[in-house]
């Protein structure tokens, strides 16, 4: 009852926004803005890709001529290098023999979880990244380091360059002892200033319609259409790559296999695998995990490149696998590069994996570590899989005879890609505010009617209650404290599914957690070594008194799927414990009761086994059930543990997006089938369980685009369209227009 007013307010806010019709100039500027945000990210990801192979000269070339490297803390800052030549020498000296080139050496310089903010004029950008460096000399030396980048970027003649690499180290150490807070005396850590506020991080990338007049443009609508569809394709391919990774973690071989073309090729360390995709995957183990098996393959710094044709794509990134078996106590690290190919199915337009290629750099036994080059050191380190370009080269425009969508429809498609990046910024900003326990800041990232899970307890509704729950747990809000310890909440590997209107997103991310402290090496109390979980979030655009901001609508963490016993013993040392049949209410639940407890009956199965959920309480090496908010992106299969929409909506349907005036993003592809029946064509569309299909179907002649028949799907998911005699011999495309809940889909059929 208490929140009714808030719901009504948000309902009207979401329907108020009326966009002015875009002009070509306006659209050209906005396409450039989204491409810029992505190039800035790819530039920094390329830094990480190149670092694995000691390509210091090429990294230096990512810098502007007057680009600067600064390393320091908030009180004392040192400029270490200015200009590419000096940057290169600095990198060479800093990494010494841990360059990935000397036999057995390891050079991992991960930077992920970007908050990239573009200036209003689109010519400069700032980016915050979480950094983790795992290095080894091959002859025993190791280094573990990390912290935060608060970088600056500049666009010089159409190319993005790093103008400032500002590295704030926060922890360092080595493999044998683990790490602790940076600096002598294990001092406390200050908060590293953010280049954004909870409000500014939500500013949409596309400028509002009352922004200054955009510059004139030479781009044609046709070129912009091709660039926008490439951005949309990047989102599909990135989601597919990351979903594949999540399926691999749980050895969901049926789902993983669905993602591949039937003639997909698999290459591992340069040799072509002679067998099926399924056989390849089963080399990791049989389908599904059993107790005590860890198969996590964390994917970082994924760059997606769409070929100019728009029909093929490549992904490249860094895979850090953490593998183990608590029964045998075996545990390993695997450092590799993935370089995968994707193809757009010519009939359905759905992307699939057509070639998987993995190059291992180093495989190490957990107990002995990576300092000696791993289990079977390679005599010569592998040559780098090819690097992907950063700049988006001009795509081939679609044939001049195909119809170009209207500018409004192009603008809508572009807003979906902008939403992808905005949701990543909100996700990352949440991660940094959580690391720093900035209660009020992460509360303010939420929508005025948004909700958040406080781990092990329940959901709090509205920013004020989210902040209070955090404060009652952590007691103070000092805006700039020195902290003795930091728990890092890394949220890589997003699968972000954007609604048809570009105003809401369903977002899955990994939680990879570690910590640093002034007293314990390799972590601190609750966080020693590494922990893992899964976030299931939703983000929306909120209209706040006429100003649009991206906000968190819903935040859930399912944790922990596994935890290290300690840095020294690792994740495979965990012993099974008898399951507990009682859930002890957390202190927070007593001190400041949530709006919805995780033990609420209305959750049904959803929270059983989760920390704070209904018993039996499960702890690694028991396997918690893993939930999915989306269906298979290729086959549309719904997983067994399927819970679409906001997680607490299972128990509180009124917290759902649709009830509050937003669109619920699609849960998977809309699969279209077209079958000839006499003189008519039966077109059917399938969606997720319980999702009703409605919408327009158009049957066009392939090539000319001439509409041959059209109709509406109302119930039962299919419609019969009369073609008459003229259908014979035609190549047709049956297109489903989509709806508020469903993606468009299509299939080709020859009569
Ligand atoms: C920052 O670094 C300087 C120089 O290394 C050091 O003297 C100072 O104590 C550091 N400050 C903090 C807050 O860590
Ligand atoms: C691949 O496997 C098939 C069937 O298992 C076998 O006949 C063939 O010789 C193999 N090819 C290579 C190159 O190993
Ligand atoms: C793996 O789990 C899924 C979902 O529970 C189930 O359908 C499938 O049969 C399992 N596979 C095996 C080999 O047990
Ligand atoms: C890993 O190290 C442990 C302890 O030294 C040893 O017992 C085990 O055989 C090693 N495993 C591998 C795969 O090298
Ligand atoms: C760690 O930090 C806490 C809190 O600031 C302080 O009480 C403690 O003395 C510090 N420990 C060390 C070893 O510096
Ligand atoms: C919106 O405007 C109203 C009326 O001017 C004001 O009371 C309210 O604080 C504003 N809300 C926000 C979030 O700025
Ligand atoms: C927990 O409940 C299950 C099923 O009711 C029962 O079999 C088991 O013995 C109980 N375990 C404990 C520790 O009470
Ligand atoms: C349109 O262009 C494509 C590719 O150039 C061609 O295959 C097709 O026949 C053309 N259609 C018409 C109606 O000209």
Bound molecules: 2-acetamido-2-deoxy-beta-D-glucopyranose
Count the beta strands. 32
Number of helices: 11
Largest sheet: 8 strands, mixed
Question: Could you describe the 3D structure shown?
Answer:
Residues 32-164, 230-355 form the SnoaL-like domain. The chain has 751 residues and is an alpha+beta fold. Among the domains are: 221-365, Nuclear Transport Factor 2, Chain: A (Roll); 671-750, Immunoglobulin-like (Sandwich). 20% of the residues lie in helices and 36% in strands. It has 11 helices and 32 strands. α2 (24-51) packs parallel to α5, α2 crosses α8 and α5 packs parallel to α8 (407-435). It starts with a helix and ends with a strand. One 2-acetamido-2-deoxy-beta-D-glucopyranose binds at residues 544-545.
Short description:
This protein is α+β, with helices and mostly antiparallel strands. 20% of the residues lie in helices and 36% in strands. One 2-acetamido-2-deoxy-beta-D-glucopyranose (NAG) is lined by residues 544-545.
């Amino acid at each position: 009852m208490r929140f009714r007013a808030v719901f009504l307010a948000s309902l009207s806010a979401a329907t108020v926004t009326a966009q002015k019709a875009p002009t070509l100039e306006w659209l050209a500027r906005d396409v450039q803005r989204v491409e810029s945000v992505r190039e800035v990210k790819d530039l920094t990801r390329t830094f990480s890709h190149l670092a694995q192979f000691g390509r210091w000269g090429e990294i230096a070339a990512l810098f502007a001529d007057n680009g600067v490297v600064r390393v320091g803390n908030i009180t004392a800052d040192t400029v270490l290098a200015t200009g590419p030549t000096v940057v290169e020498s600095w990198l060479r000296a800093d990494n010494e023999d841990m360059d990935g080139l000397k036999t057995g050496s390891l050079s991992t310089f991960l930077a992920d979880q970007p908050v990239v903010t573009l200036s209003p004029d689109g010519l400069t950008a700032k980016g915050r990244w979480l950094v983790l460096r795992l290095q080894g000399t091959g002859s025993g030396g190791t280094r573990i380091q990390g912290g935060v980048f608060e970088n600056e970027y500049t666009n010089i003649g159409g190319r993005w360059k790093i103008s400032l690499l500002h590295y704030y180290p926060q922890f360092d150490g080595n493999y044998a002892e683990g790490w602790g807070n940076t600096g002598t005396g294990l001092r406390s850590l200050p908060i590293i200033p953010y280049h954004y506020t909870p409000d500014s991080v939500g500013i949409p990338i596309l400028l509002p319609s009352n922004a200054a007049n955009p510059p004139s443009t030479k781009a044609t609508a046709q070129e912009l259409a091709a660039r926008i569809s490439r951005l949309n394709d990047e989102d599909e391919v990135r989601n597919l790559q990351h979903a594949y990774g999540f399926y691999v973690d749980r050895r969901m071989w049926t789902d993983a296999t669905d993602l591949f073309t039937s003639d997909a090729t698999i290459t591992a360390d340069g040799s072509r695998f002679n067998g099926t995709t399924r056989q390849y995957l089963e080399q990791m183990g049989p389908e599904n995990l059993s107790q005590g098996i860890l198969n996590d393959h964390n994917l970082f710094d994924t760059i997606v490149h769409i070929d100019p044709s728009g029909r093929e794509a490549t992904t490249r990134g860094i895979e850090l696998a953490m593998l183990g078996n608590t029964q045998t106590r075996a545990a390993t690290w695997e450092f590799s590069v993935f370089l995968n190919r994707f193809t757009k199915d010519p009939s359905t337009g759905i992307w699939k994996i057509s070639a998987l290629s993995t190059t291992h750099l180093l495989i190490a036994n957990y107990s002995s570590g990576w300092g000696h080059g791993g289990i079977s050191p390679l005599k010569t380190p592998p040559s780098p899989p090819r690097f992907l370009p950063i700049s988006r080269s001009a795509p081939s425009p679609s044939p001049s005879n195909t119809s170009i969508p209207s500018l409004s429809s192009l603008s809508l498609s572009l807003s979906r890609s902008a939403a992808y990046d905005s949701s990543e910024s909100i996700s990352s900003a949440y991660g940094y505010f959580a690391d720093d326990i900035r209660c009020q800041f992460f509360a303010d990232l939420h929508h005025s009617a948004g909700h958040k899970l406080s781990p092990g307890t329940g959901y709090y509704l509205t920013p004020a209650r989210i902040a209070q729950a955090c404060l009652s747990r952590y007691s103070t809000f000092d805006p700039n404290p020195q902290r003795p310890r930091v728990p890092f909440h890394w949220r890589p590997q997003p699968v972000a599914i954007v609604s048809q209107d570009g105003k809401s997103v369903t977002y899955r991310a990994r939680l990879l957690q570690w910590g640093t402290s002034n007293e314990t090496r390799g972590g601190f109390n609750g966080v020693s070594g590494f922990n893992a979980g899964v976030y299931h979030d939703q983000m929306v655009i909120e209209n706040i008194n006429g100003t649009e901001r991206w906000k968190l609508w819903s935040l859930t963490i399912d944790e922990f799927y596994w935890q290290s016993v300690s840095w020294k013993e690792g994740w495979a040392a965990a012993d099974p414990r008898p399951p507990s049949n009682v859930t002890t209410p957390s202190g927070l639940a007593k001190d400041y009761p949530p709006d919805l407890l995780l033990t609420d009956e209305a959750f049904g199965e959803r929270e059983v086994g989760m920390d704070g959920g209904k018993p039996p309480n499960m702890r690694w090496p028991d396997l918690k059930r893993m939930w999915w908010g989306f269906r298979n992106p290729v086959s549309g299969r719904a997983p067994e543990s399927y819970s679409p929409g906001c997680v607490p909506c299972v128990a509180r349907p009124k917290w759902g997006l649709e009830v509050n005036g937003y669109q619920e993003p699609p849960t998977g592809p809309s699969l279209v089938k077209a079958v000839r029946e006499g003189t008519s064509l039966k077109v059917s569309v399938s969606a997720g369980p319980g999702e009703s299909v409605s919408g327009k179907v158009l049957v066009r002649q392939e090539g000319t685009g001439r509409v041959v028949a059209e109709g509406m799907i109302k119930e039962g998911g299919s419609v019969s369209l009369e073609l008459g005699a003229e259908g014979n011999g035609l190549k047709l495309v049956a297109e489903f227009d989509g709806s508020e809940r469903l993606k468009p889909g299509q299939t080709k059929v020859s009569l």
